[in-house]
Structure prediction request, 212 residues.
Amino acid sequence: MAQYLELHPTHPQERLLKTACDLLQKGQVLVMPTDSCYALVCQLSDPEAVQSMRRIKGVDEHHLLTLLCMDLSQLSLYARVDNRQFRLLKAATPGPYTFVLEATKEVPKRVCSPKRKTIGLRVPDHAALQMLLRLHGRAMLSTTLSLPGSDVLLNDPQDIRERLEHRVGAIVHAGAVPSQPTTVLDLTPMDKGLAPTLIRQGLGSLELFGIS
Prediction:
């Protein structure tokens, strides 16, 4: 049965997140709040945990997952970033954006886009998630929390508990979160001097990117 951890929204208790981190490192999938919506998260290096996360969401290996990074320094370990891309990332992070970039060798091929060798990455602006990333010390894989056959994002922690308490290691509740996914931008066209491509408009504003 999942542990249910209630945290302060802006000053999360480290001892509780150490419990969540221990479960993560033992191969468990967690439910975590983010600055956009609730998400499922697991270790990048654990294929079984990745498969478990995909089963909970009801998606196959073609569904692309997102890497959560603590900051731009960590992000640069997993993605190739040129100077133009870095300036844009610096202006937009942390925040509710997912950026598609060319993956480095640190990213397992099984979670990259098979044709383009790209990966979606984000630096979330949420205190509990940031602390978990710091405690874990590495990027984590994530996907927005919806269940098979539905595009509705789960947003009520008690509802999440009833549905998933036997399928995840912990459910972390740290106050209300939005119920809208991130804005997704493909930055790879910038390699050729082109503008970023909007893939999905979500919570994040597009003003920073010159997209109307």
Notes: DSSP finds six helices and ten strands in the chain.
